[in-house]
UniProtKB/TrEMBL annotation:
It comes from Sulfitobacter geojensis. The keyword Membrane does not apply. SUPFAM superfamilies: CheY-like. This is Response regulator. The modification 4-aspartylphosphate is found at D53. Keywords: Phosphoprotein. InterPro entries: Bact_response_regulator, CheY-like_superfamily, Sig_transdc_resp-reg_receiver. Gene3D superfamilies: 3.40.50.2300. Residues 3-120 form the Response regulatory domain. One of its GO terms (biological process) is phosphorelay signal transduction system.
């Protein structure tokens, strides 16, 4: 099972993502509605991959990832951002700070699991190089 931490403030998106990923049988999904809650949760949990909403109240997805990356055990955990504002400049910026991928909203629930696995593989190959 792939341990996935999903940080998303929109309850509907959390529900759709959780249903799509759980139905595949490949993901153990933990969800948090804010960056602050996610940071508290990861004190005792290290996921295989992090799926972050970009724009959330309080901490943004980027700020949440930056805080997580301060912990050595999170240095190599692939992070994927989900955003409705998928402009080329923003995507390039997120990739430059170490995002494995950026998924545009609205996303395809059927393809989500495969997109995450592809991003994890891309991150693994990048780390090995």
């Amino acid at each position: 099972m792939i341990k996935l931490l999903h940080v998303e403030d929109d309850a509907d998106i959390r529900e759709i993502a959780e249903m799509a990923l759980s139905l595949s049988g490949e993901y153990d999904v933990v969800q948090c509605e804010t960056g602050e809650i996610a940071l508290a949760y990861v004190e005792n949990y290290t996921p295989d991959v992090i799926l972050l909403d970009m724009m959330m109240p309080g901490m943004t997805g980027r700020q949440t990832l930056e805080k997580m990356r301060e912990k050595p055990e999170f240095a190599d955990v692939p992070a994927i951002f989900m955003t409705a504002r998928a402009q080329h400049a923003e995507i390039d910026e997120l990739l430059a700070i170490g995002a494995a991928d950026v998924i545009s909203k609205p996303f395809d629930p059927i393809a989500l699991g495969d997109q995450i696995k592809q991003a994890m593989e891309k991150a693994r190959l990048t780390q090995a190089a």
